[in-house]
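Chain entry —
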Amino acid sequence: MISKKTPDRSGVFYLLAEFCALYAGGPLLVLAYRKAWVLFLLLWLGGLLCASASRDTRPRPIPSLSTMIRRLALIAPFKLSVVLMLIPAKPTTEDLKARSEIRGILRRFLFLGSLLAMAVWWFQPAQFLALPRNQPLLWVLIMVLYPLLSVWPQEVIYRRFMFQRYAPVFGESNNMVIASAVAFGFAHIIFLNVVALVLTGLGGVLFATG
């Protein structure tokens, strides 16, 4: 668990140097090797270490029956999941909060996804849906494997761990969001594409404030 003790000036300088080494050195190392296994090794090793360092060790209350049913439904086979989700249960505060967050995510996705799709169609019509049209199998693999192999460690490294570990450096205001977004955008330097850096940086702002 990350210490909540406020570091002195030398401690803040150390954290800043550590931040630069991890969030600049890591992507540059991947860029130097340009190997997929290096990327996923660093991503998952970093994700596991960051998850361990930022875990919440406070005792948690025993979840309600409805909460346990919903958690079981997430990992159960499809048919059993449907049955479990149909069991009547009074929604908890956690359930209501999750529903509100999901609705917000869907609204942002529909608006920004539509805006981005229209921009590509207007400015780069030849590239619009180029991947699913030209390489459908690769597109399917990305749609299936990317959330499984990449999303969780990125969320831990660039949001949960970063916000806890480097709060003494950047504070807990907009500076922290900007630092997270810049680091997340720079992580995509391996594509050597300015558009990718800018768009993922903007995405980092949404993820950090979502």
Summary: The longest helix spans residues 93-123. The two ends are 23 Å apart (CA to CA). Residues 159 and 208 are 6 Å apart (CA to CA).
